[in-house]
Amino acid sequence: MAIFQRRSLKSSDNERTKAAELTLRQSIYPLALVTILFFLWGFSYGLLDTLNKHFQITLGITRARSSGLQAAYFGAYPLASLGHANWILRHYGYKAVFIWGLSLYGIGALIAWPCLIHRSFGGFCAAIFIIGNGLGSLETAANPYITVCGPPRYAEIRINISQAFNGVGTVIAPVLGSYVFFEHTADDPEAVKNVQWVYLAIACFVFLLAGIFYFSPIPEITDADMAYQAEETHANADNLPFHKQYRLFHAAFAQFCYTGAQVAIAGYFINYVTETRPNTSSALGAKFLAGAQGSFALGRFTGVGLMKFIRPRWVFLFYLTMCIVFIAPAITQRGNTGMAMLYITLFFESICFPTIVALGMRGLGKYTKRGSGWIVGGVAGGACVPPLLGAVADLHNSTAIAMTVPLAFFVAAWSYSLCVNFVPSYRDTADKFATAEIGMRPARDEEDGSPKAPPVETEKAES
């Protein structure tokens, strides 16, 4: 009956725990549990890309207006990552944010149900905004947790493996959409109602998962733990005030630009192939999107394999460069050639988001939780860039020409990949963690003679 005992969700950030020195074996269970969350928001994101085209057909709305889905979804991220979720993370801990995010996700999915029944696009956008707050909360905690839970030298590999399950979710969702969402014609009242059962199932699952998280004994990782890791690797940049953490803010900028480009391409992928490839229906376009997301997932697993032998910063630079190289021809090419360019672009997009998170958090020490909020807040680019692409597509009546928008944002994000490889202050911090010995062997118990670290003074942001 110990599982039903009273459990506290509050932890002290000033005390160091053994979580700072977890080995690979000790971190397997918490990492596996948190990885489920990555699948959840990959699935939700994949549904959104499919619904973008679905609502254009069933509700008769423009491409620019349909981007309201992405604007509501990703616009909620900074509200969560810099607001309520980050406050909970700093004052209570990771587990509390996981439960909070799952609860918001479930509430949003339940609200989506009547909105779909009544064919209310505005109401569904409001539900998506609540879901976005839930998923933004989960990302605020899950990305840094995966990065810091276990040996620091494997941080990029860990987060890319977990994010690969995000890719699996984005593959399954368009396949489901191609058979469920596009099964009926636009004038069939069942065309929108079919979506309601998907969101009801999501609500039931996430509420169940919130209960599992509450009763699971996952280790909390404190600011003091992160300060210890940064000090031990001699990469502690937290001796500077938070507002002078320029590497962090550059990473957040890169995340904004990269995520905006990624979301814009996926959100208008179906539009692109139905316009440029002859005899391609929306249902077939959704299947092609599933294939493109499969390419994305494959890119993640391939990137993880490369990171085992090549420094992650070099893999990141190569992948982001290839995104620029292959999105450019998609602007002028048509048919299978243009679609193939997008497939290859999604393959190389794969490792960029998680690698920016991992590299951007290097050396933040006691600022790790606050810093994660800024990097995840960069996901707001997904709310800003798709409307730009949609507006350009409507203006020129061509989604292909509008691919110049994500190309420009890829180039802006590329600046961070160059700095992390060629600017010493960026590069040296990343490399010190890549050779860290923390977590490579079990830590000694305190009773065996290892000294207990003194409490670390942490700086709290004003609530």
From TrEMBL:
Keywords: Cell membrane, Membrane, Transmembrane, Transmembrane helix. It is found in: Cell inner membrane. It is a multi-pass membrane protein. GO terms for cellular component: plasma membrane. InterPro entries: MFS, MFS_trans_sf, MFS_TsgA-like. This is Major facilitator superfamily (MFS) profile domain-containing protein. Signal peptide: none annotated. It comes from the Eukaryota. Residues 437-463 are annotated as: Disordered. The chain crosses the membrane at residues 28-48, 96-114, 120-142, 163-182, 197-216, 248-270, 314-332, 338-361, 373-393, 399-423. One of its GO terms (molecular function) is transmembrane transporter activity. Pfam families: MFS_1.
